[in-house]
Amino acid sequence: MPNFTTLYNNYEKTNNVCGFCEQYAENNVATRFLLVRSLDKNHLRDIIENYSTESPDGTIRMLAEKAYNSSVTIEQLIAYIESKRQELINQRTQELDGLQDVLSEFPVVNCGVRNDKVDDIVKGFVRNKSLKTMDALEFELDNVILPKIRQYIMWSYYNQTANDIIELFFLRHPTVLPTLRKIHDIDFFIKIDKKIIPFDLKFTHISDNYFDQASQGILRNDDSTFDDFYIDSSCKTNELKKLKTYYQAFKREHRTFDLPGISGQDKASLISNLSATSIVSFK
User: Fold this and answer.
1) I need a labelling partner for 128 at 20 to 30 A (CA). Which of 73, 91, 186, 241 fits?
2) Is the model's pLDDT at 41 over the cut of 90?
3) In sequence order, what are the residues at sequence separation of 6 or more whose Cβ sits closer than 8 angstroms to the Cβ of residue 256?
């Protein structure tokens, strides 16, 4: 059976929680670990005091290891978390009070940033050698760079706050088991057929593959198949090919930016390099 350090390190570096759960599915090791991982300091101290001879002192990682190495079972962890559900709901409700009204007043905001790489905008600005006067530099900063960053912050705030409000509705459902503290890639657990399934709440309106698919042409199905839409297979191009063509033309026309060659670049790096120029934005 893997020890706590192995589980902790592998979970921290993964971006595939499903894969982690499959890797450590035997004896429900992953489930028990993730339930412990979802507890904060005070909760871990409670578990240690009730199910271990260890002292309830140390950093949160040390406490999590002591709790994991204790005799506490999955059923006992679930019962403990359930006992804290209403307290958590009350806390979240108080935190979110009034924020729905704030969101209702939001204007339509264009993000202009993909993959959350705001620093690419800053890099493009500080590397822009075409700004030859202080007036030009300040104009670019005040009228191009700062509005983009402001839009991204507004967009991110709306998404995060809306996500928190929606999550609160899930936490009130009896088949949902909350995480008592925020951990990466897991917003709550769902109880299905006596199993505990970690769930990462997402409501993004655009998926990672949308742009490639949309650029090929999305057509409506006329038959009774499961999917309402399908990709036009007759289309010979996609977003990546169009992006490469545009990148090469932009690089030729704006040599002062000294953009890297196209060889070896994927879609994310092409977008990042173009966004960094502050001339091109992606919505």
Assistant:
1) 241
2) yes
3) 129, 130
pLDDT above 80: residue 282: no
CB 85 within 8 A of CB 144: no
Q: What is the pTM of this model?
A: 0.69
Residue 198 confidence (pLDDT): 94
Determine the average pLDDT of the residues in 193-217.
Answer: 72
By the 8 A CB rule, do 123 and 163 touch?
A: no
Tokens 């657990």, located at residue: 189
As a whole number of angstroms, the distance between CA 25 and CA 200 comes to 19
From CA 182, how far away is CA 162, in angstroms rounded? 16
Other beta carbons within 10 angstroms of residue 257's beta carbon come to 20
What percent of the chain is helix, strand and coil (3-state, nearest 5)? Answer: 55, 10, 35
- Percent of the chain clearing pLDDT 90 (strictly above): 51
User: What's the pLDDT at 207?
Assistant: 58
Asked if residue 115 lies in contact with residue 180, where contact means CB atoms within 8 angstroms, the answer is no
The structure tokens listed for 249 are 């033309």
Same domain? For 184 and 224 the reply is: no
Q: Domain range holding 188? A: 4-83+175-199
The torsion defined by the Cα of 171, 175, 179 and 182, in degrees rounded to 10, comes to -50
**DSSP string for 56-86:** S-S-HHHHHHHHHTSS--HHHHHHHHHHTHH
According to DSSP, the residues that pair with 191 across neighbouring strands are: 196
- Residue 46 confidence (pLDDT) above 60: yes
- Give, to the nearest 10 degrees, the angle between helix 74-83 and helix 29-37: 30
Distance CA 262, CA 269 (A): 10
- Which of the 8 DSSP states describes residue 174? T
User: Do 21 and 90 have their domain in common?
Assistant: no
Give pLDDT, residue 28. Answer: 94
* 71 plus 123 within the same structural domain: no
In this structure, what token pair is assigned to residue 33? 């670990």
